[in-house]
Amino acid sequence: MTAAPENNTHNAISSERPLHFLEQQIEKDLAANKHQKIVTRFPPEPNGYLHIGHAKSICLNFGLAETFGGECNFRFDDTNPAKEDQEYIDAIIRDVQWLGFKWAGDIRYASGYFQQLYDWAIYLIEQGMAYVCHLSADETREYRGTLTEPGKNSPYRDRSVAENLAEFEKMRSGEYDEGTCILRAKIDMASPNINLRDPGLYRIRKQSHHQTGDTWCIYPSYDFAHGQEDAIEGVTHSICTLEFADHRPLYEWFIENLPVPSSPRQYEFGRLNLNYTVTSKRKLKQLVDENYVDGWDDPRMPTLAGLRRRGVRAQALRKFCEMIGVTKSDGVVEIGMLEHAIRDDLDKNAARAMCVLNPIKLTLTNYPEGESELMIAAGHPNRDDLAERELAFSRDLFIDAADFREAANKKYKRLVIGKRVRLRNAYIIEADECLKDAEDNVIEVKARIIEGTLGNDPADGIKAKGVIHWVDAKENTPCEVHMYDRLFTDEAPDAGGKDFVECINPNSLSILRGCVAEKGLVNSEVGQTYQFEREGYFCRDANDDKDTIIFNQTISLRDNFNG
User: Fold this and answer.
1) pLDDT of residue 453
2) Are 25 and 198 in contact (CB under 8 A)?
3) Taking a C-beta distance cutoff of 8 angstroms, is the pair 482, 552 a contact?
4) pTM for the full model?
5) How do residues 265-289 score in pLDDT, each as one tens digit?
6) Which residue of 13, 509, 532, 558 is most buried, as measured by CB atoms within 10 A?
7) Which residues does the annotation mark as catalytic?
């Protein structure tokens, strides 16, 4: 990928909003000549797919680098092979590319620094600041203390440097089983910050790594690796979510006590929490593993892959992240705000089309049998760059069952026997009668075209009550439509000790078969989003096949957000 410009000039920040605290900090640092170039990083762990919360972090880290003429590194923090997979790496790369960001240089991996991190672990041992501890996991927890009580020193804490070097070499060479011992930093077991109570630096994992194979059987902890990776890469502003605030003293302790090539600073911001949504990777993985959803990219999932498959555009997510802003405190964002951003983006950019979700036959009794004509419809009412559509029109059409009633009150603005409606982009018609099946379901409506109403009002002055959509009965695209509701019925499905699985909406997916769309959609591209007029926004599914074209509902037409 192309690196960002290497200078300390920055692009203009929109005057429509004040600078958030990270922009203020960077401007202050540049003004003081503290840095010649701003370097940020996006460091996901490849243990699952990215979700919408990561979109905020991506937009923030890459966006700050773009704004201030710096660089953003893309690095996988792959220090735990037990939970990581190449599938996740590939998916994360696709997501960052889809959002439209460019990273500096090659993609980086924590595993690419394993030798250097190991050497620095040796350095800490030699300085008397790290030791090999043989306490069991339960004993380690007992010795650590609590939030109100200090911990106590491990009986292995005062081993000699020579003994610790020998023990660490045994860990490195595979002589010890997993869980037998760990390498710990020697800091302060009485610290009020539990993260400083001799944290673990290395643990034994006799598992092949997706990047380094079987080279290592010990792996660094995230806390030990992360800051040093930042220092190696010359990161100036290491931006994390608020749960890492208590880890910052440890981050700084490593930077101060190791011969690192630079001194990055950590800053924390409020993560994105969205109501009616779960973003814990562990819980998302549970949904996948236990088949509550159809994979990580299920359109009901809050993953970027799921949102993309559902038809959400990257521009909408970037706009949403801009709308919610950057703060120093956590909060919960209304999902209606996200839906507003998606709907607003699609209203401006989605091509228009017609699709009948629950078709019944409409016969135009005064239209000549065997004849047809082409109706011209706009690709978009406000976009000349989206090509016009040609719609086949004949005696036999399909309309939606919800658009016809034998009798109705004045509030019903669709087709009623003895009343008129306009067929969208075509004639005004008047219904005369209907035919029903044995279960009393309407299966056909017979109506007449009001002559001279193609693009005109009727000469007799009796206007149509409303407008309905239609599709030609012969020239169309048969399809299946997947309708989506929120995955959870509870506003906070995993709060307060609730079992989030019990909050799953049993009606989150409805599959409509036998739908018909205008003929041109047979050539629609995977991922292309349309406004199905009068129905909502829909996207050609990435997983459909040659036999069945599937459209996923992205979002409804109606906007309930009042922000």
Assistant:
1) 96
2) no
3) yes
4) 0.93
5) 999 999 999 999 999 999 999 999 9
6) 532
7) 45, 271, 281
